[in-house]
Amino acid sequence: MAKNKNKIVVIGAGNVGETIAYVLMIRELANEIVLCDINEKRARGSALDIAHSTAFFEQVTVKQGGYEECADANIIIVAAGVGRKPGQTRLELAKVNMSIATDVAKNIKKYADDPIIIVVSNPVDILTMAIQKETGYNPNRVIGTGTSLDTARLRYLVGRECGVNIKDVIAYVLGEHGDSQVALWSRVRLGGVSLQGFTEQFNLDIDHDAISKEARDSGAEIIAAKGATYNGIAMATSRIVEAIVRNENAVLAVSHLLVGKKYGSWEGIAMSVPCIINENGIQKSVYINMDDDEKEGMDKSAQTMRDFWNSLQD
Is the pLDDT of residue 190 over 70? Predict the structure, then answer.
């Protein structure tokens, strides 16, 4: 079946999935959005709520549907899963969500031949691996949101501390979307000037460790304050979608299964590296020169993901 390049299916109609669908509509990144959820009533309600809002904006078709809607969708977004419960370990949560993700992947494969899949559910790197392995799709077309939101948080914080518009801050957080993530401080640029050069010029004292910690822990802080985080990840997801539908060749920090000897010890696991994204998904990855400490951090992050993946195979 021919793909509808303007059709996106969002699987999972909880807070995250619904917010993603709403942002996609607001940003005019699709002319047809389908919400799919095992709770069909919730999906219908979410779709109807968003559809009503198009009366104040643009005419976009928003509806509830089943997996059959994946057949002609160009992009499928996976936001299905559960949040961590009190007392539940990260491993226990991962096992539950990996089971859900594997089931989602099987259903997608029944109907879709070669879509681009964007994985949002957590732990996103592990679930990106699971969905790619279950579907057998090209790894460059199974994209995890990865550290795209962590990168946005780092840019926000650097801009805040330096008094610079966030649009003029270039910075990346790579590796795991989790505790072992790596902020590449040696590569931060503000208006083309290195962070060190900028801070020396304006006599600023920037605490790298404190900012890295705030960027890493922001999600937990938001969850503790209001129960869930969904606005930031919805925007991060829409940015990836935008790069695809507008064929931008944008460089974004996203997660995918790393295949090829060029990745060295990182090969065979999914974690975030800078990638050129266009209508084909990930066109290619980009290697950024790192300090020795940053490279060591990336190696540790890759091993963390490998150990985590192996623990889930038991």
Answer: yes
